[in-house]
Design brief:
Helix content is 42%, strand content 16%. The protein has 238 residues and is α/β, with parallel strands linked by helices. It has one domain: Glycerol-3-phosphate (1)-acyltransferase (3-Layer(aba) Sandwich), CATH 3.40.1130.10. Strand 3, helix 5 and strand 4 form a beta-alpha-beta unit. Helix 2 packs antiparallel against helix 3 and helix 2 crosses helix 5.
Length: 238
């Protein structure tokens, strides 16, 4: 059985009500606190993980700052990565995601509630506007997760090049960077069956602004990638 189908079937009684509430939050976005909306979204996704035969192991939670703006940069293996990040993060986070999926039901409502930003990779001007918006939001105290590969690698635990432009907002905002290493998350939806699958999310030590002061975006990108690679080398299957 397909894993997403399994998630829905195990929660068939709850799904209509949870989705209706999510749609209500999205339609009346400004009437509810971010904490309330995030708690509901996190509840839905956590339920999906538990009912989808997913053994998700989280490491390094003590590395995540409790307060303040933050940029989380993660390698990207598949659709489950955002789910894993939200489930693992108690403090609300938003995401920068590719424009191609912004109209997909459920994703659309979540993005609206969490002020997610769709990036058109084919439109440099629009991409720059997104980076500028993220910079302002992070300086104001929000948290965003960005996947600097730009798309899933399709190579399992092997990364592809990081786009330097993704790190301009960190350089301009002079905010802490939280590297995240996703291990085996591609297996969650790539497997053709719904047998139990294990994956890991590692919050690596935060990179403080003074550590990359004076560095160019490309140099910061390489530093973050190298730190994620260290974790993949240690925990990922060959």
């Amino acid at each position: 059985m397909n894993r997403i189908v399994l998630m829905v079937m195990k929660n068939i009684v709850k799904v209509p009500g949870m989705y209706a509430k999510l749609c209500h939050y999205a339609k009346h976005n400004d009437e509810y606190s971010e904490a309330e909306k995030y708690a509901h979204i996190r509840h839905i996704l956590t339920l999906g993980v538990k009912s989808g035969n997913i053994d998700m192991q989280i490491f390094g939670e003590e590395n995540v700052p409790k307060e303040g703006g933050l940029l989380l940069y993660s390698n990207h293996q598949g659709l489950f990565d955002v789910v894993a990040a939200v489930v693992a993060c108690e403090t609300p986070i938003s995401a920068v995601y590719k424009k191609e999926i912004e109209g997909v039901p459920f994703i659309k409502q979540i993005a609206t509630c969490l002020k997610g930003l769709a990036m058109d990779r084919k439109n440099p001007r629009q991409s720059l506007e997104v980076i500028q918006t993220v910079t302002k939001e992070v300086m104001a105290g929000r948290r965003y997760i960005i996947f600097p590969e730009g798309t899933r690698s399709k190579l399992g635990n092997k990364m592809i090049d990081f786009h330097a432009g993704s790190f301009r907002c960190a350089v301009k905002a002079k905010c802490p960077i939280q590297p995240i290493a996703m291990v085996d998350t591609y297996k969650v939806f790539d497997q053709k069956n719904s047998k139990t699958v294990s994956c890991q999310l590692h919050f690596l030590p935060v990179i403080k602004p003074e550590e990359f002061e004076g560095m160019k975006a490309g140099e910061v990108a390489e530093m973050v990638k190298a730190r994620i690679q260290e974790t993949l080398d240690k925990y990922a299957e060959v």
